[in-house]
Amino acid sequence: MEAAGQLRQTTERSLAQTGPSYRTASWRLSQAADLNNPLEVILYRETKEKYEPYRLDVAKVVPPLFFTTEQAEELDQLAKPIEDFRKETIARAMIGDLDIEKDWDAYLQTLDKLNLKRYLDIYQEAYDTRMKKLHS
């Protein structure tokens, strides 16, 4: 019975860490380092040295956006052809079947035909609505 309890505790501790999580500097600095397993110290130092100089400015991160039913339905119709074309273009460029410099204008024209402007307008509308709510 004791082994089952230990397994459950280990599993619970492991499952709590299965996805990304945000850990502030104050949280990380409040943790005690295990001298027998200094992984946390190593991760902290490497993050401080290699990640922090390049971290995103939080003010520039787009907040979660919420769409009306109509916007969501329209995005659904617009997104697949745009995404398929984008993926196809990347694949063609990677295998040398497309010259980005030469074919760039045609790429942009196809995106126009796929109504990329409307797709971006919907996102802009949702962003503007979100910002208006945040600042009112």
**Based on DSSP secondary structure assignment, what is the total number of beta strands?**
0
What is the tally of helical segments? 6
Number of individual domains: 2
Give helix % range. Answer: 55-70%
Mean pLDDT: 84
Fold and architecture overview:
The protein is mainly alpha-helical and 136 residues long. It is built from six helices and no strands. It is flat. The model has no long low-confidence stretch (mean pLDDT 84).
Task: Write a concise keyword list for the protein shown above.
136 residues; mainly alpha; 2 domains; 0% strand; flat
Task: Provide a compact summary of the structure.
The protein is an all-alpha fold.
Topology:
Blueprint (H helix, E strand, L loop, with lengths): L1 H14 L9 H6 L8 H13 L17 H26 L5 H14 L2 H19 L2
Helix pairs in contact: 4-6
